[in-house]
Amino acid sequence: NGVKDIASPANTIQENTQRTYTCGEIDNIAPRLIRAELHGAQTLELCFSEPIEAATGLEADNYAISGGIAVSEVSMSQSQMEIFLETSIHQRGSYTVTVSNVKDLGVSPNVIGSENTAAYSYVPPDTTSPVLVGVEFLNPTMLKLKFSEPLNRTSAEDTLNYAISNGIKVVRAILDVEMTNVILQTTDHVPGNFTIWVTNIKDGSPSKNVITGNTVFNYDYVPEDNTAPNIVSSVLHTDQMLVVTFSEPLDSASAQDKSNYVINKNIKINEIFLSSSEGQVILETSSHAAGEYLL
Prior knowledge:
Layout: E1 33-39, E2 43-48, H1 54-57, E3 63-65, E4 71-76, E5 82-87, E6 93-99, E7 117-122, E8 132-139, E9 142-147, H2 153-156, E10 162-164, E11 170-175, E12 181-186, E13 192-198, E14 215-221, E15 231-238, E16 241-246, H3 252-255, E17 269-274, E18 280-285
């Protein structure tokens, strides 16, 4: 009632003039920094709980990163909920980003509060190729290849990536649960020396680094010796020197242990020498008389 305009003469508003209006929900919730994610070594993405005001969101001074990382440029997504920071180069390690003074789009903009930090880490991309560090001969039809790092299963189990000398064929390749060992099933080995060539093997990193071309490793197949030595001959060269020949080379310590030899008729063993062939022992003894003896 009683409100007039500025006309001359003035017009008075109709008595009891009414008009409805609404009151929307008042935004008094401050924006929150939800997470930080590093893309490469120099682009840090910040995700917020709500759209951010451009004026404060694009201000580089509103962002601080631990470890001496500097912010050189700031950009914003179309939704204004993501901020992208271009930074100096990160090194391997853990970091924390802190956001200050950033506001939301409220009628009375809310400034970011205590939920203004996020931790993240940087692991440089793997650029190191896998290395074949060892070959273990398990049996005549099985080898174990040991690599320096986890492998890509597809490349590790491709039999075409392996070649063995002397006509040995690779029948199957199996990558074990540790992802660093490959078991090769092969055709029969015979005793001897062998060479294995490994190509196109990739590591398990996203980079899939390839092993150095034509990686070569040598190994031997020496059959297990389950045969005990036998005495081939025992010949008395003088009455105090007995030469004993064995069927194979001997262990030096046991071959020269006097307690391991007994000669009947009270013949005493004074000294023992192992010949250079390691399969012949010379016994210096007390004097033998004519006759037959048992060693």
